[in-house]
């Protein structure tokens, strides 16, 4: 993901984003069904939606083609992409979904680092250590100033950089970091310690996300923040960081988000952190371990950092594309399907292939969005509730497009029944399990379980909760507004090949394709798994759009209070999904 701020406005104890770890799933949530040791052949799904491999594949191939130049916001690639989506929406019979317009203009600030030969110069141990851009670190300017200069900024190791009152955990306690640069670990103490009693154990909370690290450091008054990259804690390798920070970075303007920003934000490799700490006479491994323990004390480094960042700043806008089918009975209530259209564009400094086509991430989601929209457009009788289809921008820059949509919705959030999000559908043969990210959070589990059962499949909790997928896609911005959100797709337990084949495919994508130029369309890619997932997601929305009931958050979900407050005038609504 490219960097920007996600200021999480959950109405909970933490002002920026409360990620109070929920207790175990509520009893009302359906239990995940364990997969048997021997899986049968993939079932033949009796589906009448019209969602097909032919339609999905054609749209996927188009969106992932070089023609769209990697779909970077603010470029020709954006104009071609959004025009294609709009044309498809119009052709299949949708109506403009944003108060009579197909487009919702999202204001943005584009920040282009000009001196890409920048280095971090650190005075430490009686000498000067240089850390090189991309090789040792990546940095950017989040404050949108044409030039920022840090001169002899003191370095402080603040562990995980977490201030979580509900956890009685504050890595900044008693510390003044104004004007200083903090060095921060990725993820959170529960992950680092392996202690199930800390935070959510190995499952990442929002406190573990890189966006939170920068937000909290800025709130504390720091001038800069450097996150130490570790592949396991981040969920991706250094190449993903490097590629994601190589082009322009985007943010919302202060008129949309007045929160403080850092002058310097970035990542350093673990090897660079070890070198820095070693030169300072400190043991990085020992300090890292000490950060896992309650009562951790920040450690000032006998080191000072200097760096100058020169950036070209441009104000502009990027478009969400919004289509809808008005409800025949309750047009003021909506189910929202979402998928982000943006990707990383192209890197002209590369030799060979320069285009980040983003076939899986997220041409699959947008192609699926259009497929589901077409199924609804052909539905007879039409849905009782309105169904909105939004292809959002700037997801790779911190979920900015969906964040803007959630703040400026064409149908109010307290009239938005549910969100169904599609991001990076796996292009594998059909999986026996549908993996639910954020399993146990809401009644949406029951809806997807019903759809999965009809296909001869099961639902399971999302894979790799330590990677924080719940906070990494656009459904999160709907959840922050209290809207029950579903982010589900085929899991690793393939009908053909089982978990070994599925995990091998996931690992291959994560290591060799995710946020790399190799994420491309091929004619031999298996589409049946993604098509089955789309058919299930359509079934969920079809049921919701025909009902008068409202899915609810589980009693122990951190999002329940927000929804209850927003629905207060509509008290009495409850889910009938069992």
UniProtKB/TrEMBL annotation:
Molecular function GO labels: aminopeptidase activity; carboxypeptidase activity; metal ion binding; metalloexopeptidase activity
Keyword Signal belongs to the record: yes
Pfam family, one: Peptidase_M28
Protein name (record): Zn-dependent M28 family amino/carboxypeptidase
InterPro entries in UniProt: M28_fam, PA_dom_sf, Peptidase_M28
PANTHER family, sorted: AMINOPEPTIDASE YDR415C-RELATED, METALLOPEPTIDASE M28 FAMILY MEMBER
CDD domains, alphabetized: M28_like_PA, PA_M28_1_2
Keywords, ordered alphabetically: Aminopeptidase, Carboxypeptidase, Hydrolase, Metal-binding, Protease, Signal, Zinc
